[in-house]
TrEMBL record, chains A, B:
PANTHER family: ALLANTOATE AMIDOHYDROLASE, ALLANTOATE DEIMINASE-RELATED. Binds 2 Zn(2+) ions per subunit. GO terms for molecular function: hydrolase activity, acting on carbon-nitrogen (but not peptide) bonds, in linear amidines; metal ion binding; N-carbamoyl-L-amino-acid hydrolase activity. This is N-carbamoyl-L-amino-acid hydrolase. Its EC number is 3.5.1.87. Its cofactor is Zn(2+).
Length: 416, 416
């Protein structure tokens, strides 16, 4: 690689200003962004992104599901491009960085290469995946999931939001139902920069997370059936309190995940008492469990141990506990060569870094089932995401974009 | 007392049929009763009750808050009557016995005395107290609470239900805003028959509960503030999970009440996660605590121990826990002479019996603050109440009414 290329740095100030400029599309008074997929605000940012890519010399095309691709030609057009990017949609009360950083950093990489007059061997292709968030349409990571064949385009196009508007109608309404057949844009490999959405990098004062895996997920729907009775007149020893049983399950999930840690987490995020009343012992509770690990064997242990705990608690407390596994996705193992490329780029650039597991799902977790893929994380403030308070430092965003640049250069090669 | 009077028995079959006849006013398909206070169904049962009392020779009058009184004259009208009765309103999905048994047994006592041609020395007064349940209007035991001066009639009349209808409007709508000033109907003493609403009598195979006390009540509103974060990307040791903290409080309340038992109970009946989501660690939970004991010193210990537990849990888990005591009522100690009268009646009639504490609040707990009062309990199936499945045996209801009859005769005296 030429000295020019190996010393190349993205323009952090330019990246930072694109982040803040585009944050006005759906910007909220609290400094967040509300940009639901395929909304008017999503059209605004998509139009801006298309124009910026075209001005940077990319050929932009859009597939059936609105996934956007900006191709920067390489010397060797016989091979599929190196993909880079993320998503531009947000949660209903989302922040300025989740997804957006990865998409705008990909644009910044192209701009930086243009400014330096660098041609890559392989072509590059900047991507903006449709509906990563899943807030308006299920499932989350919709565009990439369909891209890798988890869903047919017909299935996805027919899905409706809460107002009965289908994906097809929403795409047509903003002019983003493209001509490119789903899956026609191939990639040699794909690299995604993203904020961590967790507290680890910040806590350890590391700039770059070299993401080597994504957690598998176990989702359960649970129901506890005890016996509703009078809070005043039912002695303690004659109770069959559904909330007492739930409390033991909550603490069991916490203990099981901790014991199987550090590569395991477990959460009860929803718990609803049926017919709640201040002076009635809860008789029925519906709840969810979310357990994750990057290792399939740990996922098996999580599943086994939580089921055993539920059986023991139910028997001792004389309640019924039903646990229904509603979703299991296996862990993602990112490509070792790409992981090395990310780590080498971080090292060469002098950034502190550590291997990290992605706790959340990402488009690249879907893409990794079909092609070599990798991810780069940068810290976000207090680990907060999916929140208008989501924040990240300019220097960290710039560092992440530099790692993205040099990972892509390593994968694509420099022609001149 | 004449042999006729001392051998007198109520007509159990007649009592049983009035219970089932009136259960059609608001009867539900599952065999329960939905008869919210001052509703159209409440008017139906009130009209029926007024007519039945009048046909039994009582002078019926109604006070400002709809409390109904049916006076059966005695030989000595210079003294206030012996009161007997309960309430006819039900929970939204209530049963056929809660309150209703005591009201209809009071009517049955009058009918039995009429049939036997017995005049009492003191007059009797059958009462139906407005809104014991508190389901439509707060507070519960509204009519009796205002009667003893805990609330002004103006305050109560202005209270509104969930549809914005005031008590005054509801009373006018069904024609039960009466002329009798609140508190004008005096009593020498008051006796109330009620189902236990708990499992003790059934578990010990006793027919009659001689109620010597009513539990005091501590009600708290609680709030836990942790930190909402991503279920996938937040390591276990960096969480501030509000539901984990709640679970420890639930188990602490259970343990504290059990340790201070058997004369103590503690319940968390409501717990609501703010912005619940399957993949978000709960950051905020509102909850209630209900703790009760018939002994003031135990109530003090319950209060002290639960506050200490909350402080310890909050510090260890790095969450905030606010506990706000919103209601404290002291234990009720029923009148020793009236308790003896109930116990003597049960013994003389040959019914198995035991002293018992009322776990629930009752109109008689309010009345006991102003006059000698007592209660009689009979078993209910599985201790279930506030439920369409609420059930009681015909023989037990008849036994309770007989104890009511002979307690009232002992208190009122027999003229002829």
């Amino acid at each position: 690689m030429s000295k020019l290329a190996s010393n190349l740095q993205i323009d952090t100030a330019r990246l930072w200003s694109t982040i803040h400029d585009t944050a006005t599309f759906g910007g909220t008074p609290k400094g967040g962004v509300r940009r639901l997929t395929l909304s008017a605000e999503d059209k605004q940012v998509r139009d801006w992104f298309r124009q910026a890519l075209e001005q940077a010399g990319c050929e932009v095309h859009v597939d059936t599901l609105g996934n956007m691709f900006g191709l920067r030609r390489g010397r060797d057009m016989s091979k599929p491009p190196i993909g880079l990017g993320s998503h531009l949609d947000t949660q209903p009360t989302g922040g300025k960085f989740d997804g957006i950083l990865g998409s705008l950093a990909a644009l910044e990489v192209v701009r930086t290469l243009n400014d330096a007059g660098i041609e890559t061997e392989l072509p590059l292709c900047v991507a903006n995946w449709t509906n990563e968030e899943g807030s308006r349409y299920a499932p989350a990571m919709m565009g990439s999931a369909a891209y890798v064949g988890d869903f047919t385009p017909e299935d996805i196009l027919a899905r409706k939001d809460i107002d009965g508007i289908s994906v097809a109608e929403a795409l047509d309404a903003i002019g983003y139902r493209g001509d490119t057949p789903l899956g026609a844009q191939k990639f040699t490999s794909f690299v995604e920069l993203h904020i961590e959405q967790g507290p680890i990098l910040e806590a350890e004062n590391k700039t770059i997370g070299v993401v080597d895996s994504g957690q598998g997920v176990l989702w359960y729907d649970g129901k506890i059936t005890g016996f509703e009775s009078h809070a005043g007149s039912t002695p303690m020893q004659l109770r069959r309190d559904a909330l007492g049983a739930l409390s033991e399950i909550v603490l069991a999930v916490e203990r099981i995940a901790t014991e199987l840690g550090p590569k395991a987490v477990g959460t009860i995020g929803e718990a609803v008492i049926a017919r709640p009343s201040r002076n009635v012992i809860p008789g029925e509770i519906a709840f969810t469990i979310d357990m994750r690990s990057a290792e399939a064997s740990i996922m098996d242990s999580l599943d086994k141990n939580v089921r055993a705990a539920a059986v023991e608690i139910a028997a001792r407390r004389k309640v019924e506990i039903a646990l229904d596994l509603v979703w299991r996705i296996e862990p993602t193992h990112f490509d070792p060569k790409l992981i090395d490329a990310v780590q080498t780029a971080a090292s060469d650039l002098g950034y502190s870094h550590r291997r990290i597991t992605s706790g959340a799902g990402h488009d690249s977790c879907n893409l990794a089932t079909m092609m070599p893929a990798a991810m780069i994380f940068v810290p976000c403030k207090d680990g907060v995401s999916h929140n208008e308070l989501e924040d990240a430092k300019e220097a960290d965003c710039g560092a992440g974009a530099n790692v993205l640049l040099h990972t892509v250069l390593a994968l694509a090669g420099v022609a001149k």
